[in-house]
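Hi everyone, sorry if this is the wrong subforum. Our group has a chain we'd like a structural model of before ordering constructs, and none of us has done structure prediction before. Sequence below.
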Amino acid sequence: MDPEQILLLTIMNIALGVLGVVISCLLLYLVIRQGVFHGLRAHTRWIDEGKDAYTERG
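Answer:
Right subforum, don't worry. Here is the predicted structure as tokens:
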């Protein structure tokens, strides 16, 4: 292999590694975002149900 091919393969290897890290971070962000969204929605529903029960008691 000549030096240009080695350099090209090295650059491609680094680029694919960086791309893999970026995609992994985006997927992790989406998973965490969905978890927080569903947690906040459940919490809001729980608070709203508590408010309704509290206001009915007077």
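For your construct planning: The mean pLDDT is 90. The two ends are 84 Å apart (CA to CA).
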